[in-house]
Amino acid sequence: MGILTVDEFHPMAGGNFQIIIDEQPAVEIRLSEIRAQKVRDFPGKLREPFSLFFEGGQGVFCPQGNYLLRHAASGWEAEMFIVPVGDKPDGSYRYQAVFN
Fold first, then answer.
1. In this structure, are residues 78 and 72 in contact, taking their beta carbons and an 8 Å threshold?
2. Are 4 and 12 in contact (CB under 8 A)?
3. Contact of 79 with 95, CB cutoff 8 Å
């Protein structure tokens, strides 16, 4: 797999993903927001930076770390580092993955 770009994720916006953790049941999350950031070119720049935000299910918390994420509809998958960035009153969590 090559370098992930923001364009790969636009068709999956609003879609459901699964966090795959060894033999445990998959954790369901939804890609709720994509934020692209334009920066000036610099030597070695591989892509425009972007962030993905996911909304998790109620009562399930994943600490920051590398996880295998699978898009539920297409089966597309990649490992990425996600960080919890907040919780909501309903007991669900918001996660962010940053790509520089």
1. no
2. no
3. no
Residue 1: what pLDDT? 59
Give the count of beta carbons closer than 10 Å to the beta carbon of residue 17.
Answer: 23
Contacts of 55 (CB under 8 A, 6+ apart): 29, 30, 32, 88, 92, 93, 94, 95
54 CB neighbour count, 10 Å cutoff: 24
Gap between the Cα atoms of 67 and 44, Å rounded = 26
pLDDT digits (tens, 9 = 90+) for 30-81: 999 999 987 777 776 778 889 999 999 788 899 999 999 999 899 999 999 9
Query: Residues in the chain, how many?
Result: 100
Q: Which residue has the tokens 């998958």?
A: 77
Helix, strand, or coil here: 7?
helix
